[in-house]
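queue> pop job 88
queue> type: inverse folding (structure -> sequence)
queue> payload:
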């Protein structure tokens, strides 16, 4: 098992259309200029004005008291569970949740927490499913401490949890004395798609964070929000995990730029994803899930070609796709245009004909 990411093979053609992930967006020239102009200080000592400006803005956006700037979304999730829970506690989440599938077992390794996996279509569980898994309290049962949701649900196909479902889940959690956490890696995609403000989406949740390195196009950074007391405790974990930064404002400036210029345009990514899904649905043998946001999952096996085989063929034509949960994932973002979607569909048509 090789743990370090592998460099691409030297003979692979350059990637012309990158649908691999919205994490692969590059900072625009205007974003880089905003970074160059940023006022900087020592973030770890509390005197980087640009980091403070970002945290104040994020707390207001999410309707929470306070916020902390983190190097990554994963660190937001890890610092949040470490702050909410104690060793031996149980976290309730969907079986496909990022905290369960994609964080290297961090919540067990660092916190000593177990995660109870709930089921449900498209990465979402229902209020009834949650209610059915609330344990009676006894010395035999693990202490249930936290309910986690992912908005949008990544492996669920970028699905948007309806606000009513989020509210019902939060109400059940409160009724049973459980804390609530929202992994909002792509929260702004959900807000733009549903036309619901972030503070409404997150209203029932004790902690919530947003990733700036997905569709928002910043080079790094995520912001975790909650009560002043929660953020104060999360800061201790940020320090312990090595996430306290120095002139972090250079990156916070990119995040502020993204809030001003890259939120409304997420609607373009959603339109491009829908166009891609419509085109895919017309290819014989290809099964495609209708996208809510910017992630399109499809399965070409009905056309006589395996998912991994097709991803390899597309890569040799300069189109990068990813595999996630046994299906192909195409992700639209800042660096993907409508003509690129048309071209991708043409190349796919040829690649499938060769099957
Ligand atoms: C990407 C992602 C994360 C982790 O964010 P990083 O910034 O890559 O650490 C967590 N949750 C979800 C749903 C994600 O898509």
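queue> result:
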């Amino acid at each position: 098992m090789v743990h370090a990411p592998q460099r691409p093979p030297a003979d692979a053609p350059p990637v012309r259309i990158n649908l691999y992930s919205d994490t692969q967006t590059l900072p625009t020239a205007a974003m880089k200029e905003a970074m160059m102009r940023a006022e900087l200080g020592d973030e770890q000592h509390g005197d980087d004005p640009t980091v403070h400006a970002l945290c104040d803005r994020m707390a207001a956006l999410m309707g929470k008291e306070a916020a902390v700037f983190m190097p990554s979304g994963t660190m937001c999730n890890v610092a949040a569970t470490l702050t909410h829970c104690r060793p031996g506690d149980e976290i309730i989440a969907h079986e496909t949740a990022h905290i369960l599938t994609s964080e290297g077992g961090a919540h067990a390794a660092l916190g000593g927490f177990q995660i109870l996996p709930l089921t449900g279509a498209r990465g979402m569980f229902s209020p009834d499913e949650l209610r059915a898994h609330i344990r009676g309290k006894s010395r035999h049962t693990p202490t249930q401490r936290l309910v986690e949701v992912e908005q949008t649900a990544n492996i669920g196909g970028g699905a948007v949890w309806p606000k009513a479902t989020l509210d019902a889940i939060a109400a059940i959690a409160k009724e049973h004395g459980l804390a609530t956490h929202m992994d909002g890696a792509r929260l702004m995609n959900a807000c733009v798609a549903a036309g619901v403000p972030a503070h409404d989406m997150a209203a029932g949740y004790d902690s919530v964070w947003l990733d700036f390195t997905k569709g928002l196009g910043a080079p790094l950074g995520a912001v975790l929000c909650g009560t002043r007391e929660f953020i104060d405790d999360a800061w201790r974990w940020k320090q312990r995990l090595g996430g306290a930064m120095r002139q972090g404002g250079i990156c916070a400036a990119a995040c502020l730029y993204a809030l001003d210029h890259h939120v409304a345009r997420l609607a373009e990514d959603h339109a491009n994803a829908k166009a891609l899904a419509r085109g895919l649905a017309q290819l014989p043998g290809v099964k495609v899930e209708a996208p809510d946001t910017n992630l399109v999952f499809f399965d070409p096996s009905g056309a006589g070609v395996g998912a991994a085989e097709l991803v390899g063929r597309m890569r040799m034509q300069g189109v990068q796709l990813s595999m996630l949960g046994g299906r192909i994932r195409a992700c639209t973002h800042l660096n993907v245009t409508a003509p690129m979607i048309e071209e991708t569909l043409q190349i796919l048509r040829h690649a499938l004909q060769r099957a």
